[in-house]
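re: that chain from earlier
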Amino acid sequence: MRNHRYHPRNQRTGSPGLECGICHIFCPHTTAGITVNENADPDVKRDMLAKLDELVPKREAYYRHYEGNSAAHLKAALLGFSLAVPIRNGRLLLGTWQGIYFCEFDGPRTRRVQLFFQMAQE
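^ sequence. v structure.
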């Protein structure tokens, strides 16, 4: 898993005028996922990878996908392809230790993530 962590404690959302709402984050790829987890201790990434590898081995006799990346598809499906993160005062409302992980299971590849902002009344 190649991951990119984003921890926006002091960063604005980048959407002018959006003080309160939801940031919808979507990954349009089938072998990469998005999740929220602890962003302070690098062992969290190692532990997540170890457990995912235990749950979803790279090779299984029953895998039939011709590209040979069935494990990547399964891991991405377990993590999920979208998040909804609240926005307050123009900032993503994550917990003190939380960060957003983009998890690449079949790369490196060129990837993109789509962000959608939805305003709300406070």
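DSSP finds two helices and seven strands in the chain.
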